[in-house]
Amino acid sequence: MHIAVAGNIGSGKTTLTTLLSKHFGWEAHFEDVDTNPYLESFYEDMQRWSFNLQVYFLNSRFRQIINIRESGKSVIQDRTIYEDAHIFAPNLHSMNLMTSRDFDNYKSLFELMSSFIQPPDLLIYLRATVPTLVKQIQLRGREYEESIRIDYLKSLNGRYEDWISSYTQGKLLIIDVDNIDFANNAEDLGAVIDKINAELHGLF
Q1: Could you identify which of 25, 26, 27, 71 might form a hypothetical disulfide with 76, taking C-beta atoms 3.0 to 4.6 angstroms apart as the criterion?
Q2: Cα–Cα distances in Å, from 53 out to 28, 42, 58, 175?
Q3: What is the pTM assigned to this prediction?
């Protein structure tokens, strides 16, 4: 089984992935943040490093999906390959932070890769407003994230909503992060777990 957690920067994907992995005994696959050689440079100069960063993520997530399917294990994945292609890369292009030439090349790569993979069995989308994202980004205190602009987060949120509203590849569960604290409240986490069980196994 392949479960994936999607959501904007600071929405709580890694926290929820960790908690669900422990509860269900699923193997967790996290986003390659700490060892990503482009991320810090990207936030310093988005225009220069946008294509490099997106290709790195595309390659990393494609490998993850291949490994997940080959392992035969139940896996929960922090962020999906679809978010790179439908949200982050088009957003960079529309903000003139990625050239049309690079964007077309990126799209061609994604289309080829996506023809070899299957979507997750369940997609969990963490919906959050920009103030919630900003608060959670500040709480985790990653130095390179201090320069993230509000308009950048807002633009990403709009693209997430557009993508989710037309998502038809599989089962979808939307969690409203503004009104829930699964990180610190056991009842809230329990409510999320109940919703996941209902999606995966039906209501008893």
Answers
A1: 26
A2: 23, 7, 9, 28
A3: 0.89
**Whole-number pLDDT of residue 17:** 96
**Could you tell me the two tokens for 101?**
């030439």
pLDDT of residue 103: 97
Between the alpha carbon of residue 43 and those of residues 50, 86, 104, 120, the distances in Å are 9, 20, 22, 29
Q: How far is CA 185 from CA 49, 93, 123, 188, 196, in A?
A: 39, 39, 22, 5, 17
Query: Is the domain covering 2-201 a CATH 1.10.245.10 domain?
Result: no
The catalytic residues are 78
Alpha carbon distance 139, 98 (integer Å): 29
Domains in the chain: boundaries: 2-201
Give the model's confidence band at 116: pLDDT under 50 very low, under 70 low, under 90 confident, else very high: very high
Centre a 10 Å sphere on the Cβ of residue 197 and count the other Cβ atoms it contains: 13
pLDDT tier at 20, thresholds 50, 70, 90: very high
Which pLDDT score, from 0 to 100, does residue 202 have?
79
